[in-house]
Design goal:
- By secondary structure, the protein is an alpha/beta fold.
- It has one domain.
- A four-stranded mixed β-sheet has the order 1-2-3-8. It has a three-stranded mixed β-sheet with strand order 4-5-9, with helices on one face.
- It starts with a strand and ends with a strand.
């Protein structure tokens, strides 16, 4: 069963983020739902860049973020992409050895909520 939470991370006040929790021997593991992850990204982009974006979830941990190119100056596109990957990407994929090198994102470290994505694509449309 999902619930909604509010928290602050990266200097952004996130509101009504939908999460689920699974109980294990060692406690409860919390993670964002697809809707929660999409809302988190939208709120982050709005707070930092002052623009709206479109977020589509392709699979369990894969998202596409579309931002109108004219909404952010062209010289900041690379910085915005790098920033979004740093905040939400859970590591890198090693195709030669076929594994994902996982790293916890800051929100998981601070609040115990896994909101990371394995594959993140940022496009300026």
């Amino acid at each position: 069963m999902s619930t909604k939470v509010n928290f602050t991370s990266y200097g952004v006040q996130f509101k009504n983020i939908e999460i689920n929790g699974d109980t294990y021997e060692k406690g409860v593991s919390y993670y964002t739902t697809g809707r929660g992850r999409n809302s988190l990204v939208k709120q982050y982009v709005k707070a930092l860049y002052g623009v709206k974006c479109s977020v589509n979830t392709n699979s369990f941990r894969s998202i596409n973020i579309d931002i109108k190119a004219e909404d952010i100056p062209a010289d900041l596109h690379a910085t915005a992409k790098a920033d979004l990957k740093k905040v939400f990407s859970s590591g890198t994929y090693n195709a030669m050895e076929d594994y994902h090198d996982y790293k916890a994102v800051e929100i998981e470290k601070e609040h115990g909520i896994d909101c990371s994505v394995n594959f993140l694509k940022v496009s300026f449309v």
